[in-house]
Amino acid sequence: MIMIDIILDAVKDALFIFPFLFLIYMLMEVWEGARNKEKIEKALAGRWAPAVAACTGIIPECGFSVMCAKLYDTGFIRTGTLIAAFISTSDEGLIILLSGGADVYTILTLVAFKIIFGCFVGLLLNMTVKFDNTHVCPPKGRCIECGEEHGGIFDEMVIHPFYHSAKTFIYIFAVNIIFGLLLYWIGEGAVNQFISGSETVQPLITPIIGLIPNCASSILLAGAYLNNAIGFSGLLAGLTANAGIGLAVLVKNPENRKKAVFILLILYLSGVTIGYLSMI
Question: What is the pLDDT of residue 217?
């Protein structure tokens, strides 16, 4: 029965993300055919793009981090912009806090810390990182994702986006199954015990849980806070490092895997830093 629950949860999470994937693939095709696409790309890669990403990323769903990962994968946004969105997002953790009775001051403080820190780290990285993907416009009539020839407007706006969304859906489903099983075998109690040490140590530990590319990681962190297993600094550190399934989408492309290690490191260090800053 447990296996069925894990599969159903994996299907539910992947299905929820599918519309976001389909939308972003459609938008990318629209951008490629737009007359003012240079202005659109300039806005996505502009100086204040990390601030926009951080403010938008606070929306409590994992779909936005997935969309940002795909935009980064295709070179539309820079590393700092991606990380600003990842730092800001709380996946389903924010929903758990809201529904679990966390006080408004705590939630507003959490959101403010994540937005401000996401903006700061994102702007800093965009000024310093030199290995960003460069978006190259495909030849007219070719798919932005794979370079295949389009057969017409329906092929361009529906068939290709659906095909690539379906491939990513299968990948996300597999990742959710794997991490769902791992979390089941380890057990929520064992995870809570792992992260519920001294509050001064929690900011070193909770980001490790946050980096798990699955919706369950943010739920575990929020639940641990509501059950007094971790303090606010541990919660903030863990949710700062958390980017949901966006991290899994990022490493789907083999060319991104070295960059993904750098992004994971930045997210972990960001979680640790902001966790300790919140104690001051």
Answer: 87
Give CA–CA dist 78/72, Å, rounded: 6
Which string of DSSP letters, residue by residue, matches 170-218?
A: HHHHHHHHHHHHHHHHH-HHHHHHHH-S-TTTHHHHHHHHHTSSSHHHH
Show me where the domains of the chain are located.
2-277
39 vs 114, higher pLDDT: 114
CA atoms of 193 and 184, how far apart (whole Å): 15
222-275 pLDDT, tens digit each:
999 998 889 999 999 999 999 888 888 888 877 778 888 999 999 999 999 999
Supply the pTM of this predicted model.
0.85
Most confident of 6-20, 33-47, 74-88, 145-159: 74-88
Which ranges constitute the DSSP H helices of 212-251? 215-226, 232-241, 246-250
Report yes or no: 22 and 161 within 8 Å, Cβ to Cβ. yes
Q: CA 213 to CA 217: how far, in whole Å?
A: 7
Name the burial class of residue 181, with classes exposed (0-12), middle (13-18) and buried (19+) by CB atoms within 10 angstroms of its CB.
middle
